[in-house]
Amino acid sequence: MVKNLTHQQLIDIANEFGTPVYVYHAERIADQYKKLQKAFKNSNVRFFYACKSLTNINILKYVQSIGANLDCVSVNEVRLGLMAGFDKQNILYTPNCVDFNEIVEVKELGVNINIDNISILEQFGNKYGNSYPVCIRLNPHIMAGGNYKISTGHIDSKFGISIHQMRHIERIVKTTNLNVTGIHMHTGSEIKDIRVFLEGLDVMFNTASHFPNLQFIDLGSGFKVPYQTGDAETDITTLGEKVALAFADFEKETGKKLQVWFEPGKYLVSQAGYFIVKANVIKQTPAAVFVGVNSGFNHLIRPMMYDSYHHIDNISNPTGAERIYNVVGNICETDTFAWDRKLHEVREGDLLVFYNAGAYGFEMSSNFNSRLKPAEVLLVNGKAKLIRKRDVFEDLLRNQLVD
Q: What is the CATH number of domain 26-269?
């Protein structure tokens, strides 16, 4: 197993590239991918990296180099994937609530298309008939995920076509002669209980008979990674064993051998990512001691949006006495990264590192308060490489029209 980067490695990177800075450890991504391959070694499986978690093209190129496929949710992610060297047949496009014109644009790029809307399905069938294969995203009405905002398979979700609309799907497939080669579900992120996947798989197997040309079942992802000591994570080894048995049983019963697809995003890149910031001020109030850092939710919004926990270390003073702090940002909003967090004594100018910062960190960043986006660095074979320059002031004006 690849170990975490050392404090000294992170300090060296911060000194070379400045702060705030996102750092990604390439070998950790590869290590996570190998774990998936090992866990599902008895299945006919394909893994598609859900690149919405981190789309820097250097990351995409690295993911392609270790053998993964690519899951995209927009036409621009598809274009990035093709630029990064992915073969079109190794890209899956799974949008929601997009204009049909975008679907047409992606179809012309030749990638796998996953449709999650009755209206789009009918339009696609009327335009292309059986000339272009499609996958259908179903909503199995299974509640799962660590936060309601990242649960996508429940009855109130905007994602997927309800399994209760199967009769409507059948009518569209029959009347337009659609070639349905895959069915898909994704119930959410942060799934601890593997029974969620197995329950969803039962739904998919029960649905499979409706599609004679079926080649694969896509179970999405949602594999949970630990964020703190003692945190639960998805037991992918047991899941892999049970999935292999379930598909073998399905083949015995039906005579049909199907592939299983997964779309890991956070699982591959979360633990590979580090976010390094500098302590600007230490502010004592009657109620608390605040560490104000040179960042905010404009760079890392997950703690404010999802109440996510990120372990924080003071890498400048790792042996100092422990004290209790609120770690906050420099944005003109309440942007608290951590409440009542025990840290080794923080002094102004110290460097702090946030762990598990690879997924939905930089990807969800913004220029709120007209502040600049940070740099990104990729560490490969012990060598740090700048893969995104830090914003400069002129970047704020790049697309503005000034008289």
A: 3.20.20.10
CA-to-CA distance for 366 and 16, rounded, in angstroms? Answer: 24
Return the closest-CA partner of residue 51 out of 87, 22, 84, 20: 84
- Residue 274 tokens, joined: 């580090």
- What are the helix (H) ranges across 90-194? 100-109, 118-128, 166-176
Angstrom distance (rounded) from CA 280 to CA 348: 6
Task: Provide the whole-model pTM.
Answer: 0.94
**Residue 83 CB contacts under 8 Å (≥ 6 apart), including other chains:** 57
Give pLDDT tens digits along the chain (403 positions).
788 999 999 999 999 999 999 999 999 999 999 999 999 999 999 999 999 999 999 999 999 999 999 999 999 999 999 999 999 999 999 999 999 999 999 999 999 999 999 999 999 999 999 999 999 999 888 754 444 333 444 456 677 899 999 999 999 999 999 999 999 998 766 777 888 889 889 999 999 999 999 999 999 988 999 998 888 889 999 999 999 999 999 999 999 999 999 999 999 999 999 999 999 999 999 999 999 999 999 999 999 998 999 999 999 999 999 999 999 999 998 899 999 999 999 999 999 999 999 999 999 999 999 999 999 999 999 999 999 999 999 999 999 998 8
Q: Cβ of 280: how many Cβ atoms within 10 Å? A: 15
Start-end of CATH 2.40.37.10 domains in the chain = 273-391
Q: What is the DSSP string of 46-89?
A: EEEEEGGG---HHHHHHHHHTT-EEEESSHHHHHHHHHTT--GG
Overall residue count recorded for the chain in this entry: 403
Structural element, H or E, at residue 293: strand 289-293
List, by residue range, all CATH 3.20.20.10 domains of the chain.
26-269
Q: What residues contact residue 347 under an 8 Å CB cut-off, 6+ apart? A: 279, 282, 316, 317
At the top level of CATH, which class does the domain 273-391 belong to? mainly beta
Bridging pattern class, strands 91-93 and 69-72? parallel
* Furthest CA-CA distance within the chain: 72
- Is 332 marked active-site? yes
Say which of 51, 72, 135, 332 is annotated catalytic.
332
How far apart CA 218 and CA 44 sit, in angstroms, is 12
Question: What whole-number distance in Å separates Cα of residue 239 and Cα of residue 196?
Answer: 10
Q: Which residues contact 393 (CB under 8 A, 6 or more apart)?
A: 372
